Amino acid sequence: MTDQVAGLSAAGDPPEPSEAGTGALERAILRFQDGSDRQGSFRLIYETYFRAIERFFARKGLPPEDCLDLTQETFLGIYKGLDGYEHRQRFTGWLYRVATTTYLKRRRTATAAKRAVVEVSRDGMENPEQTLAVPGRQLAGLLDEERWRALRAAVAELPDQMRECLTLRLYHQLSYQEIAIAKKISIETVKAHLFRARKKLQESLAGFALDNLEV
Amino acid sequence: MPPPLPDPEALIAALAEQARSAAGEAPDPEPEELLDYLAGRLAPKDAERVGRQLAASPETARALLDLAELEAAGAAAGEGPADLAVRAGWRDFESRLPTAAPLPRRPPVWLSTLAASLLVTTLGLGSWAWRLQGELHRPIANVRSLELTDSRSASEPVISLPSGAPLRLVLAPVERCPGYTAEIAGPQGSGRWTVPGLKRDARGLLALEIRGGPGAYKLALLGCEPRRALEEHRFRIKPDGG
C-alpha cells in the first residue's frame, strides 16, 4: 500500500472545501441542469473528479485498464443522472454512490462470468476481512489457549487511539497518511502511536515473535 | 490439527476481533455521516462510534478515504489545468456521449418568463372576449331594430334593410312567462324558423335577431304552461332604397 494518496490532506487539518472550488462546481452543475452549457460545465466536473474516481477503483485492487474503463462508465452515469441531482444532497456523497453503483454492477457481471466458466474463486484474497478475521474459537485451535488469552489481553490493554491506529495499519493495511485522515490526527501522531503500540506489545508479549513486526 | 498461526498474523486476528467487538452491531455509516465525521461536524459520541466502526470495518475505512479524496478534489475544482491523461480521457468520454442532448430538467429563465407572459395575455384576452360577448348581445347602432310591441295594430310595419343585413326584433309580451319561443314564417318559399329559450330582460322586453330577404314575415310568440300562442306579429322587409 502506498503512503502517498494524491489530493488528500493529512488529517488534523481535514479537507476544507474552498469557496472558489465548490462555488465553481455548484455553478457548473446549475449550468448543466439548465442546459445552457452542458458540455463545458460537465468538463469541469470531469476534470475535477477524474483522478479521485480512478483511485476509488484502484483502491479496490482493480487493474489500471479496468479502473480507467470504470471511471469513464461512472462519468457516463453522472452525466445521465446529473439532471436529477438535487442541490440539497451533498454532491460528494452523490458522486460516491454513483461510483459505488458502477463498481457493484461490474462486480455482479464479473461474478456471473466467473460462475459461467467455473473458475476458482479468489474472493478470499480480495477480501482480507474474511481471511484475517478468524474468530477466537477457531484461533484457540491454532494458538494454544494461554498464548491466545495473553494476546487478547495485551491488545485490549492498549489505549483506544493507539489500538485503532494499529488496527488500521495492520488489519486494514492503510498508509500513515490514510490513517491520519481516518483518525483526524497528524502523520507524526500516527507514527508515535504505532511506535508506542509496538513497544507496549513487545513488553507485554515477551514470548511472542513480534520482533519483525512492521508497523 | 492445522499449524499455529505465526504471531504477527495472530496479532492481526486479535486486533480485528477486538475492533469488531468494540464496534458492536451498529450498521455501517452512510456516506453523509462519514462526510460529517471528516468535517468534524459529528457530536463527540457519534464521532467515537464512527471511529470504532472505521477500525472494525475495512470497507468503512476505504469509504471514508474515498469520500475524503472526492471532497479534496471538489475543493480544488478549476484551480489548475487538467493533466494530459485527464484531457485525453475527456476526449474519449466526449465521443461516448449521446449525440442528442436530453432536454434540460429545468427550462431556462427566459422560457418561464415567456410562458408566464403568455398565460397573463391569454387570461386578459379571455376576460376581454367574455366582456365583448356581453357587448355583442346589446343593441348596437348599425343593427336595425323593429319594435313589435303592439300586436293589435292593424298596420303591418315595414322596414328597409340592405340584403343579408341582420334585423333585431324587439317584443314586449303582455303575459309573463318563464320562457318564450318565437316561430317565424318568412316570405313564401324561404321557410320557417323557431327560436326557443327567449327570456324577458329587466325592462320586460324580448329581443331576437334574424337575417332574411325582402318579403312578408309572420312571427308567432309562444309561451307559458301549457304552451300556447300569446301574440302574433306581421312585418315586411323591403330592400334598402327600394
Give an overview of the whole structure.
The complex is a heterodimer of chains A (215) and B (242). Chain A has helices spanning 19-34, 38-58, 64-81, 91-117, 123-126, 128-132, 136-142, 145-157, 160-170, 176-183, 187-204. Chain A has 215 residues and is mainly α. In chain A, helix 1 crosses helix 2 (38-58), helix 2 packs antiparallel against helix 3 and helix 10 crosses helix 11 (187-204). Chain B is rod-shaped. In chain B, a hairpin with a 4-residue loop joins strand 7 and strand 8. In chain B, the strands form 2 sheets. Chain B has a 5-stranded mixed beta sheet with strand order 2-8-7-4-5, with no helix packed on it. Chain B has a 3-stranded mixed beta sheet with strand order 1-3-6, with no helix packed on it. Classes of the chains: A mainly alpha (215), B alpha/beta (242).
Sheet with most strands of chain B: 5 strands, mixed
Overall residue-averaged pLDDT value of chain B: 84
Query: Distance N terminus to C terminus of chain A?
Result: 12 Å
**Main structural class of chain A:** mainly alpha
Reading the helices and strands of chain B in chain order gives HHHHHHEEEEEEEE
Oligomerization category of the chains in this entry: heterodimer
Strand order of the largest sheet of chain B: 2-8-7-4-5
Kindly report the average pLDDT value of chain A: 80
- By DSSP, the count of extended strands of chain A is 0
Low-confidence stretches of chain B: none
Number of helices of chain A: 11
Low-confidence stretches of chain A: 1-19, 119-134
Please state the overall shape of chain A, judged from the principal axes of the Cα atoms: elongated
Query: What is the molecular shape of chain B?
Result: rod-shaped
Strand content of chain B: 15-25%
Measured by residues with Cβ under 8 Å of the partner chain's Cβ, the largest interface is: A-B, 91 and 73 residues
Look at the helices and sheets of chain B and give the structural class: alpha/beta
Strand percentage of chain A lies at under 5%
What's the total number of strands of chain B?
Answer: 8
Rg of chain A, Cα atoms, Å: 22 Å
